Amino acid sequence: MTAYTRRNFLKTSVIGGVAATFVRPFDAFSITGKQESSGSRVALTTGNNRADLVFRALQPFSKEIAQSIGKRRVILKPNNVNTNVQLASTHVDTLEGILEFLKSIGKTENVIIAESAANGPTFDGFKNFGYFRMADKYGVKLVDLDQHPFDVIYVFDEKDFKPHAARISHMMVDPDSYIVSVARMKTHDRVFATLSLKNIVFGSPIKDNGFSFTPSSKQGTTTDKPILHGGGFRGINYNLYSMSRQLHPHLAIVDGFEGMEGNGPNDGTPVDQKVCIAGLDWLSVDRVGIELMGIDFSNVGYLNFCNQTGLGVGDLDKIKIIGESINDHRKTYKLSDNFKDQVIWKTPVSQNVSESPNPRFRLSYT
User: Fold this and answer.
1) pTM for this prediction
2) Other CB atoms closer than 10 Å to residue 141's CB: what's the count?
3) Residue 28 located in a structural domain
4) What are 142-198's pLDDT values in tens digits?
5) How far is CA 206 from the centre of its chain?
6) Counts for the chain of helices (H) and strands (E), in that order
């Protein structure tokens, strides 16, 4: 959107140390009552400009978004799983389009862009992807979640069937935060696809200062992100489902302008699709995203669990698509090499007598 003035755009469409830990009650094994819903809306836009796409996708929800934000802090959560690979990470133009939208509804006074990057220092990604210039332009803060207070929750691990403690960013579960998931459409080597919910759940665990998945990692540092992966394909799907009750976006946005297929979320190849989807029901948005990627919804464990227990609307017949047609923009994404192993979540544990038949992926759940 760099070439756009705001008028033309509208026409076309601090950081301190980690605070002390405290425990927030969270039962990963509880069952909540089913939330009935008669339907949901998802906007689907297409075009040649990322910022314009997301701006137009958000317009149908202007009143609801403004009302829901109220006086809360707005957190734009990008998906910077790799601070050096743009294809794996949220594009600055997508964030700029969201900020233009927030400006149009008068909600830019308390906005931050917050992330805990998976592979290294969060600010490295902010710098590499051009976030500093954008933050200065709109007067928003860039925040490394690793440098702020955290809560402790407990999640499941399929290897020992015991709860395991993990540090989760307090900002991401704070009732005073309005969470916006700014995800990128990508395949994934554990749960078929990365969309809006996964961006929030797996972006919220924090890591120590100086940690990275490189030889330069500071000695003695660690990351809590692998804990949420649950030790395998069953564990990761269950943890995504169970944590979605507490960790989910209020506004879900998935940028499919250029998706990633194959061995995502890091090592895939680009898909030229030029779409954007947005909505207030994250499950509906992710359901539409799965359709646009040509993925069989029945294979995506955590989204099926959420749909079965009424945590959103996952039934396409109950989702109203605003704008473009799914059928006109669906592509068949190449899946991760281990996609056949990923559906093991469908098989009861008592029937599974061996590990993954593919040594490349055996016990590689980090």
Assistant:
1) 0.86
2) 13
3) no
4) 999 999 999 999 999 999 999 999 999 999 999 999 999 999 999 999 999 999 999
5) 15
6) 13, 12
